[in-house]
Write a structure and sequence with these properties.
The structure holds two protein chains of two kinds. Chain A is mainly β. Chain A contains no helices and eleven strands. In chain B, strands 2, 4, 5, 6, 9, 10 and 11 form a seven-stranded mixed β-sheet that branches. Chain B has a four-stranded antiparallel β-sheet with strand order 1-3-8-7, with no helix packed on it.
Chain lengths: 110, 110
Amino acid sequence: QKEVEQNSGPLSVPEGAIASLNCTYSDRGSQSFFWYRQYSGKSPELIMSIYSNGDKEDGRFTAQLNKASQYVSLLIRDSQPSDSATYLCAVNQGYSTLTFGKGTMLLVSP
Amino acid sequence: DAGITQSPRHKVTETGTPVTLRCHQTENHRYMYWYRQDPGHGLRLIHYSYGVKDTDKGEVSDGYSVSRSKTEDFLLTLESATSSQTSVYFCAIGVGTEAFFGQGTRLTVV
């Protein structure tokens, strides 16, 4: 069974701080990794995709991938209350099917 | 907006009745997916399609069937609904290596 693990949280950070969200995966052959943001009662929204080892930055978001350690992370700089949501880590398993972690709830306090 | 419409958005049905959920896309993408999301389990793949009349099972396919008779529509059928199928159902489309989700259908089986 291919697995994706995330801490459920909640992760609480003050406004303006850096939020660090982590994810590990079991399938060493995985090639594509994604972070989704999901507000309560809404659908998952893709915020970052990463395919190679290293960092990928997009605005306030940075995704980090370490395939040797089977580890993916998401950093959110200058966190805002509007970033409060559940963040889902997902790994591509072929045909763009995804295995998801259970998500980490992020709470950003003003 | 990824051009995905799910219908109905909410449904309450009785145990033992058949239920069909519809996913409609406007952009002619080849890959389509059905996921369910439950507390404590996260998002799990039910079935997916890689073309008209080409479908395959996902992690939690028991009790579900799908059909795709034209590119734009992917139907999920619960032949005889059970209480364990109470969930939020998300349709997604594959665009390259990425997946984008519809708004979801909240199904309650009583």
